[in-house]
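Give me structure tokens for this 141-residue protein.
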Amino acid sequence: MKEKNFNYTSLYLYDRDLVDELERDFIESGIRSKSQYLTHLIGLGLQTRKNGNTETANMDNITREITEIKRALLSLQHSFLKEHVPNSAYQILLCNMNYLIECLLFGDEVNFVAWERGDFDGLPDRIATIYERLKEEANIA
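Here you go.
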């Protein structure tokens, strides 16, 4: 096969719209030589083509990393919920038990309507205050 020499190349453009666009761009570029302009344009096209393949590979890597991050976040969320949902249920149970114990201690009547509504699901004020202070000391949000 004959070796290709790109030092001197003839080019015939069949697309009239492309020719018009090249002429407009040539004038806007400020380059005086058509040969320099086309050399510059071909160089940009070649560089873009090379970068295009690299960018596609980079996008594939980024997509893969995002997928891994999503999996890790879902796993972390699952672990968090698995650990803390039962703790929350136990906290509500303990709060309700605290209410019942206070009723027994002070001889108060148990308000079952308020209990069913969830009025006693939260920490008693004194314990909530201590809990908030401990969270601040431990820098927990």
